[in-house]
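Most newcomers find our protein records easier to grasp once they have seen one. The structure tokens are whole numbers drawn from a learned vocabulary of backbone shapes. The record below serves as our worked example for the rest of this section.
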Amino acid sequence: MLNLQRVAMFVAVVEAGGFTAAAQSMRQTKAVISFNVRQLETELGVSLLVRSTRRVALTQAGEVFYQRALLLLKESDALVEEVQTHHGGYSGELRISTTPEYGQAKVIPALSAFGKLHPKLTIRHDSSSAPINLISEQFDLAIRLGKLADSSYRAALIERFEIVPVAAPEWLARNPISSLEALAEAEWVIHRRLPTPREWQVIGSDREARDLTITGPSRFMTDTAAALMAFVVQGCGVGLLPEWLVREAIERGELRHILPEYRFPSQGIYAVYPNTRHVPAKVRALIDFLQEWESNKPA
């Protein structure tokens, strides 16, 4: 049977990059850490680490064991927290990652309310549009928008939202758009993190589906919705953006919704979390809270 303390020491060595740093992080001596990792290797019958004077590196077997060890420790923590929750409510740390725009507009108000309900819980929020590894980066939950790629994670739908093509009034005055053909040939600002940013299917007022292939030039490309919106407001072309993000800019007259008689595919907002045997109760509670939070908010 594996000794979880030794597994945790091995993980600490890998993440710290050496035995000395791992000993400091775990408040143990270097000799204790080294002994326990050697014992773990003996019990497994394989070498997990290649040791050098400056740094340690994972062997092939060590890489496989490291990934599984992270899951094992996360499941162990989840099991302990679930048992403790029945006695004192949610506690510990909850780590969540969101995109900057949706996090600021939607998730942070919900996290604030959730935190007030569970005062013993520490909430750590990170903003990033880049893909992350929930296991190796030790996140409990990530909020992701759009269509999800196949992965080993679980996902729960939080809500759906519309995406709309918009442009600045001054730009539209110079480049009027009155048809799908004109929209396809216009100059676009592209969100480069989308898998197929130039290929779309739209639904007209007659409920007929039509393919839209963007053939116009794209001199400006960016990797966040906020930056894309800023380019569009500056008159750099058409941008396809979440309706919840551009709603106020449209109301202020900074942007105009182009061809509102056509609808682009609605997008999902998902809570993504590791596919572990024991999902922490606080993670399940937060997902339920986010779903209820969004369903009860006024449109």
Q: What stands out?
A: The mean pLDDT is 88. The radius of gyration is 24 Å. The longest helix spans residues 60-88. The chain has ten helices and 14 strands.
